[in-house]
Amino acid sequence: MITVLDGGITEVPGFRTAGVRAGIKRRGPDLMLIVSEDGPVPAAGAFTTNLVKGAPLIVTKEHLKKGRLGAVVTNSGISNAYTGARGMRDAYRMAQVTARLLKLRAANIGVASTGIIGRYLPMRKIEAGIRAVVKELSNSREASLNAAKAIMTTDTNPKEIAVRVDLEDGTPVTIAGIAKGAGMIYPDLKTATMLAFIVTDAAITSDALRDALQRAVDQSFNMINIDNDRSTSDMVLVLANGRAKNRRITLERRDKQFQAGLDCVLTELAWMMARDGEGASHLIEVQVKNAGNVDDARCAARTVAGSNLVKAAVFGRDPNWGRIVAALGRSGISFNPARLSLELVSERGRVDLVKRGKPMPNRVVERARDLMRSKEIEIHVDLAAGKACATAWGCDLTYDYVKINSRYTT
User: Domain spanning 2-275 has what CATH number?
Assistant: First the structure.
């Protein structure tokens, strides 16, 4: 059983955090730190597959080679991506300054940045901010919320969640996370701009943590499609301090309950990102069932969720199911269009659009307009090609999305 707690990462014993304003952005907190009270602990990460990677990602991947981190420092406002040798020096410097203040090795610090590409970090402000955030470290509820706010860019609200789950050996563990992301989100994270930082008190090896993270990422963050743009700075990090004293989870002895808890945390954060898509007025959830295999199910769901034509139709409350059929047809998956069924669902009801290859009469489809007044729209796809299923999340394409991204640097 998974219990959702009222809080964020400070719900996990042994972790402190804080978020402060360093002056990198025009307003609001913009520098965050998460610290393990037990020093370096097992850690794992997943990173963008974009060929152009931010300097912090390169540094953090290097620091994760030994599978342990003691802290994560993050700034928002500038992504430190495509900044060459200077950007690498600045990313290393963030780790060094943080490590010195926490009495850790620089190699035990994870570094992340999010914001505008191609600009250098204002290192005087960054270093002053790191000194300030270390002094503010706390395990309070407010500290977790401040940390979630400090990593925001175009987000309209902070994203955090904490859950408690009983492992297979009966030990209760806590898993919690914060995330940011509202635009430039089409992750393909391998062992998102989106950032997510997860902490847990479960006892687990680094290898098992990496495996569990990738499994969770594949059905959560990798199933978001806000705008078909993969960021240079997508990153997910998870740290586990082992304070729960459970039977240690390993690759040879996985724990289904831990996996379920981690899946829950990442899926909730992914859902929050989709709901907060830049300029969005509707959340779109695409549920695909009866696909030939899991890969086809995921591909179909992501393609529909990411289709600009589908997004525009949802924004205009236009039940144009032809956009959905076209997206499925170009997705590259295998199915028989003559057996396809489509359904539109919201809190206002449900309407069949296509049933076993036959379009519904216009009078039926017109009823879908009323359903599309809801803020959350579900598109149900039955491919009738197998038994696999998948869910993806996105949002509609609005005028405000264009406004936000036409003046992002100005």
Answer: 3.60.70.12
